[in-house]
Amino acid sequence: MKQMRHLSTFLPMVIVSVVTTVNAQPFFVGHTTINFTDPSRNRPIATEVYYPADVAGVDVAFTQQPITAPIVTFGHGFVMTWDAYSNIWEELVANGYVVAFPKTETGFAPDHLALGKDLAYVVTALQTEAATSGSRFFGRLDSSACVMGHSMGGGAAFLAVQYNSSIRAMITLAAAETSTSAIGAATAITIPSLVFAGANDCVTPPSVHQIPMYDSLASSCKAYISINGASHCQMAEVNALCSFGEATCTPPPAISRATQHVVLNRYMVPWLNYQLKNDCVAGTSFASTIATDTEIAYQLSCTICPSTTGINSSEWTAGVKVFPNPANDALNLLFPHPFSGYLTLMDLQGKIIEEIRIENSTSFSADISGLPEGFYGFRLRDDLSMTQYQSFIKSK
What we know:
alpha/beta
């Protein structure tokens, strides 16, 4: 393909269509089982993987929409299994994430550190899949990842961070202190971290578990959300063993499971979109919502999406124009304000074709004459980490 080029002026042209977003959410849920092996420990790790698809089902194709999906690995609770967390994968996959559940350490004497290492290794294993021709994930996974977990798996998520530098964010749900201390591990964690707690959690009381974890985190950007009336087990779907354990202590939940999930979903995706996709609109939404939400108590250590330009993020994303569409030799862009950042051109599988720096310009032209006909996408990311995804058609 020829190099993209910047033009200071355009020939007069007519805008023939309004741009559309590449990520036409929600996605359907695809599901597959992969048996990974960590060679450093000679350890098999059977893993359930859920991913964006255009039709729901087992072993269906990855979505044809031009996205690269960030990876989320999720650790289950004590004597719980991955199938208790459909509320998590349904929400995240619908929003363009791949969610993987290692099925290890499900017995009554789990090795917490081994589970943490499994969570870290599955990120590496999936990134290897993304680099392997013939894999359904070939060219479709982002280089960034998040580690998540519930209860014991939340504690294991703290342990996982040190074992994989691709893990760029962490979210935990009612995390439990672990035998290899999650509280101790938190002192070395600097990535953005979101800690959920249930105010009525009698299994892992926040004062003993999540609050010390949050306080120990070395992250420059961390958030603590306590859901009013929420319980330990209602972070997941119904699970008999978890419910049995919760029934033996007080206080009981004061809100329904469905309500608790609504509050979780209110913050999970905006946090991930901001931290892993550099989506400043999502970050701003997270910060404004958390500040006025009467269903939670919270702490937030950072200012999200600081702006020194006075440009509103929604104005920026709404104002970019691309024309013509379909395009033949050149794809032209107009910005509502001088733009500095990166333009990334992608094919239908989300594979990056080219990335180029744009400096303080209100117009740009990309030479696409060397591309075959078809659908393509591109991403704009400015220097304030505001991101926009758009699509276009290459014609003859």
